[in-house]
Amino acid sequence: MFRGTGPAVAARNFHDTTASLPGIPSAFSRSESPWADPRRKQTLLSLIDVLSELSHDPTHENSVNQDPSFEDDRDVPTVDEQLQVSGAESFGKFEKRMDCLDKELRNFANAARQLGSSVGILSSAFRLRERLTKVLFLFRENAATLFPRKVQRQARDTLVNPNLMDRRKRSGQRGHQPPLAAKLVIDDDLDPETFPEQFQKFAQDVVTFLNSLNEFPEFTDEAVNTSIRSFEGDLKYWASCLQEYKSQFRFPAVQRYIHDLTSDIGDHIDNITVTLSMFIEIGVPTIRFAQQHAASNLLNLSTVATFFSAVTATTLQFSYAQTGTVLSDAVNAFWFSSLVFSIAAAVNSLLGLTWKQAMYRSPGHRVPWWVLIWIKRSPLVFLVMSVACFSAGLVVFTYSTNQGAVTSTITTVFTTITSFGLAAVSAWFASERWIFIQHRGHVWLEDVITETTNRLLRLRVVVMSRKILHQCTDRVYAIRATLKNIVHGGTHQAKPKEDTDTLPFSNPYMTTVHHEEPGSLYSEPLERSASMAGSDNGTTAHPIHPRERFINAIRSVIMLQAPARPPLRASSTDRTSQMSPIRLTDPAMTGLRGSRVASLVPKLKTLESTQDLPAHQALVRHLQFSPNGKFLATSSWDRTSVIFRVGDPFTTHRLLVHVKGFIGQVAWSPTGHQLLTRLNHSIKIWSEDGVCRKTIARDCIIQSVAWLPGGEAILSVEGSNAVKLDLQGKILDIYHFDRITLHNVAITPDCQRLIGVGPLQKSPSGLQPSKANRVEKRVVVYNIGTKQCENQTPVFNDVRDITIARADLVALISYENKAPPQLWKLELLKDRDARLSLRHTYMPRGPVDFAGPSYFGGKDDQLVLCGGKAGDIHIWDRESAALLHYVRPPALGGDLTCIAWNHATDDPFMFATGSHDGTVRIWSTPHGDAEDDSDFEDRMEGSSNGMIRGRHSFTAPGSQRQALRLDVSQVGREPGPIR
Fold first, then answer.
1. Would 405 be classed as within a structural domain?
2. pLDDT band for position 845 (50/70/90)?
3. Cβ pair 715, 705 in contact under 8 A
4. Residue 499 burial by CB count (10 A; 0-12/13-18/19+): exposed, middle or buried?
5. 94 and 48: one domain?
6. What are the φ and ψ backbone dihedral angles of 489, each rounded to 5 degrees?
7. CB 685 within 8 A of CB 692
8. Is residue 150 within 8 Å of 82, Cβ to Cβ?
9. Which residues contact 105 (CB under 8 A, 6 or more apart)?
10. Most buried of the four, 186, 543, 722, 926, by CB within 10 Å?
11. Is the distance from CB of 688 to CB of 675 less than 8 angstroms?
12. What is the superkingdom listed in this entry's lineage (predicted)?
């Protein structure tokens, strides 16, 4: 806007043009013009002069009129350009994978035409190719919406149906050659809202193809089954999860998640493509060989049956004329029957051969059982019956023709032997096949015969053992009766077995009697029980007679000799436990934002490591500055937490020692007077002087803790719940996030909502993905008042942490592995609900393995910073997502684990980093010599209705570096017109 003629000339021309515009009153151009007031005129002229000076400075010209330029970024594309290029590349890779699978399916269809009963697999392959075309079209539409400059949309008219079987012959046009490819018949609307339905149908088509493939019993490839079953399960899982995002498939966040699914779907497609290629190379020839072998057997059977029918017809010439006797009639009956069976065997063999080689026939499980039996078994059965009838007729023929006794006898004996052998072998074959099918190949007929023989032997042994046991029992009863007679002097008669005692001695395996200690020959417990029973009845306990002692001794010996059963144990049951959206803004706003960003770059470039604090003996897990900036708290795996006093230099203020457990997090209260340390099952509350005021024990594992903005309570993230606790550990409320394992929760400044991040435990229909890394992750907006989830947004990468800015409703989400952080905006809708929309993805210069979560920086949270495990540090501008400063990793490699910014100071900038060896490093900028700009700010306030509506402030931080800092509070909301 100020290029070419300079800002001063442009401003004067603007004034002249404004004065001469038609329709503008002359009063405005003179008396009401902003140039009429001398003070305002002087202020604007001063601003124009400053802009004129900056326009001649090449450094500031680049920073005002162009995007801010940083070191070594001349050839680095913008963030949006990087996302466009990477998104287009990922979609191109996915498209190539789909094309490769389509090619393999086409090759498989061509190879399968050589097989019998291939119409089913051909049809399913064509249906699968058609589904691939539709799914690829939807993914292209989604990618074209996200990356419009790199991915082009596909016209629906260009969609081609790969299913050549859908070609329909035109009636009345005989001899008309149908087209090679027909247009795709769209039976359902290919709209992004149909993604769940398309995934579900995709899974059905994949399973149909697999079932058709398994209908060839000659060959089964477990690799194909495993890959396709895994793909089916993931498709159903994604379809079930996407059902919850109805009417949201045009939101950028959901579109980005669907686009990210192309990597997982592509992996499945690659596996299926490779296994299908191997099946074409190995499986198809194997199936073809097996079918040719079966056809050869049928052909041989038909040849034998034809030859045997000729033999039978020839022998009939010697007997058909002999009739009138029983034997002659029997001979003709057998031989005519043999001829009929042999002809039937030959014809049915040819029928079976034709059926096996037919392309258009139903698979075996879709054919009636009697048809299969007739086609597969009748030729051999008829041939066996023909041989049996011919043999029987031959024996009778020897007797009917009055052959010699020797001839008749030899014919009868040999025929009996051969017939018995034929029957026995046929029975063996049939039984072996039946056993193999029943036991699925794990047991053979010989094993069954051996097992049956062993069972019979064991049964015989058991029967004999029981018989011997009963005899022994009878002898014991007899001895007992004899002993009783001896003791009583022969006065008592032996009673029958069932009346002598109440104990069931007839069955030694029953244990209905009381168990006794085998330490003594006599049964003392029985004596005590008898004496106690006597005392309870009010009678006097008499001493036990020697006869009873002898009987009890025999009883004890019998019980000791009886086999004891081990006690039954109760079975224990197992417990189940973005792309940044393109924002079209005013060019003036872009220039102002660039100038604001450029003013931060010189200061960030002066960041340097100023202090190294030997804080711990092990890895530094987490650290945080207090809100007032006076203290820095750290935590480590050495079970200690250190509070440093901020200063030059930093000094150790307090050492907090924990007896057991690793300290995973420290969190200062909003006032900065209390500190939380989080362990696995407890939370400790400390004063700033290092006094432990309370230890709150929890039963579940604590994932993270957070203070409420007022500091009156805390939130403990445990599983799927966010538990609200007071400072004494009392549960105030529980907020349940359905089916989500929370990793972290952030609270909005107004305490109205929670934003939680974590993976999904299971889909709405209870499905699970094939691999753990394919679990859907979500960002959930939870309303504290209604205790309902207002919005759920899917994300592809593993979420780690979430942080909300102190003044704005924006959330910074960090991910595991190498995924960059993202900024999400919490938007309040008219119906008082809220939803999240993706604002920025903070792209690093190259692949980075991030260490710990990312955080807001700067006094007003205008920065975003994150560190890499190699020791590199990235600092972005929050509003523009421009990489302002990049600290290269050390030459020998770094060991950065976490990072924290001091929000209490803006001059100097200050942040801290932790490392694996327990060292805490302090980074800061030198104090600047800023001038007092209050007068100039007042002048800028006076000209707020001039060039740009907003609050302007001009700072001149140094004589050699001048920067224009225009802090526009309403950027992107209501840009003011130039008057």
1. yes
2. confident
3. yes
4. exposed
5. no
6. 75, 25
7. yes
8. no
9. 125, 128, 129, 132, 276
10. 722
11. yes
12. Eukaryota
Do 340 and 423 lie in one domain? The reply is yes
- Among 142, 48, 56, smallest CA distance to 94 is for 142
CB-count exposure of residue 308 (10 Å: 0-12, 13-18, 19+): buried
Q: Rounded CA gap, 37 and 44, in Å?
A: 11
d(CA 376, CA 341): 16
Strands 863-868 and 850-857 turn out to be antiparallel
Where is pLDDT greater, at 829 or 620?
620
How many domains, the chain? 3
Using DSSP's 3-state secondary structure scheme, residue 791 falls into strand
Distances (CA, A) of 1 to 47, 591, 745, 912, 973: 15, 10, 46, 42, 21
Q: Is residue 352 domain-resident?
A: yes
* Residue 725 CB partners (closer than 8 Å, separation 6+): 683, 696, 713, 714, 715, 716, 731, 732
955, 965 Cβ separation under 8 angstroms: yes
Q: ∠895-897-902 over CA atoms, to 5°?
A: 120
Are 760 and 740 in contact by the 8 Å Cβ rule? The answer is yes
Of the candidates 220, 98, 259, 227, the one whose C-alpha atom is nearest the C-alpha of residue 770 is: 227
Bridge partners of 781, per DSSP, are 755, 791
Contact of 705 with 678, CB cutoff 8 Å: yes
Going by C-alpha positions, the residue among 189, 198, 203, 187 that lies closest to residue 243 is 198
Q: Token pair of 638, please?
A: 């050495």
Scanning the structure block, which residue is given the tokens 């490839």?
221
Q: Give the model's confidence band at 814: pLDDT under 50 very low, under 70 low, under 90 confident, else very high.
A: very high
> At 164, which amino acid appears?
L
Question: What Rg do the C-alpha atoms of the chain give, in angstroms?
Answer: 46
Contact 382, 348 (CB under 8 A): yes
Asked if 815 contacts 798 with a C-beta cutoff of 8 angstroms, the reply is yes
What single-letter amino acid sits at 137? Answer: F
Q: How many Å apart are CA 892 and CA 884, to the nearest integer?
A: 24
**Cα 866 from chain centroid?**
28
Per the model's pLDDT, the better-predicted residue between 634 and 10 turns out to be 634
Residue 417 lies in domain: 317-443
The SS3 call for residue 482 is: helix
Q: Under the phi-then-psi rule, with left for phi > 0, alpha for psi from -120 to 50, and beta for the rest, what region is 334? A: alpha
For residues 356 and 354, what is the distance between their CA atoms, to the nearest angstrom? 6
Q: Which two tokens stand for residue 91?
A: 């979609």
Residues 139 and 226 placed together within one structural domain of the fold: yes
164/161 Cα distance (integer angstroms): 7
**Letter string b/e over residues 181-216, b meaning 16 or more CB atoms within 10 A of that residue's CB:** ebebeeeeebebebbbebbbbbbbbbbbbbebbbbb
The vertex-319 CA angle with 314 and 325, nearest 5°, equals 160
Q: Which range has the top average pLDDT, 3-17, 83-97, 555-569, 821-835?
A: 83-97
DSSP string, 539-577: PPPPPPPHHHHHHHHHHHHHHHHSPPPPPPPPPPPPP--
Instruction: Answer yes or no: do 189 and 220 share one domain.
Output: yes
Look at the alpha carbons of 271, 277, 281, 287 in this order and tell me if their dihedral is positive or negative: positive
Question: Given 23, 58, 76, which residue is the final one in a domain?
Answer: 76
What pTM was computed for the model? 0.66
User: Which residues face 707 on adjacent strands?
Assistant: 714
Q: Using the structure block, give the residue that is written with the tokens 């025999």.
A: 554
Q: Is the pLDDT of residue 118 over 70?
A: yes
Domain-ending residue, one of 76, 101, 129: 76
Per DSSP, helices labelled H in 892-933 are none
Give 648: exposed, middle or buried? Use CB within 10 Å, 0-12, 13-18, 19+. exposed
Share of residues in the chain with pLDDT > 70 (%): 70
